[in-house]
Input
Amino acid sequence: MDKASKRRDPIHPIRALMVGAGLVALFWSMPSSGAERTTPTAPPEFLALKNPVPVTPEALGDAALLYKKKCKKCHGADGKGRGSATKGMKIKPRDYTDGKLMSTLVDGQLVWIILNGSDRETTEMEGFNGKITDAEAWNLVHYIRSFAHNRNNQEEGVR
Ligand code: HEC
Output
């Protein structure tokens, strides 16, 4: 009896730790209030891509028209992600005027989400593969980035 309980004792703290870690992992993975972002990461071959489309006034003009038609209702005319269709959304699009945020998202990641969509269980960001051309998707990447550039330019202009 004595022997057995002594042998078991040192196991207890370890087991407690393991259960604790399991619980922590469970809570981390649970979408609390359903607003956890689960944006998928593009495959490495996409992440390595640089935007192959040159930025021209024409390209940006075309992208602006396309954005107005297909993206504005969610991403907003100002790119802040508060378009008219986002009212009931738990996960809203991010603020593309935020230069710091945008610097964390590489071209290949942005174009991949545009073409393939985000997590369709938690967001309404569908993929536009087949609905727009690859060149149009890359143009949209330039356009999306211009929201942050514009703001910086404006801020510089104000000072
Ligand atoms: C029905 C609403 C809706 C429409 C329409 C829509 N989006 Fe989105 N989009 C979202 C939401 C919500 C997210 C955030 C998803 C996430 O966090 O992964 C998102 C994410 C993105 C991202 C990923 C950036 C990031 O935050 O990681 C890009 C790029 C993007 N959208 C571009 C576009 C473009 C370009 C269009 C138009 C061709 C478009 N979206 C149309 C709702 C929309």
Q: What stands out?
A: The two ends are 80 Å apart (CA to CA). Helices lie at 2-8, 11-29, 44-47, 57-70, 72-75, 99-102, 107-116, 134-158.
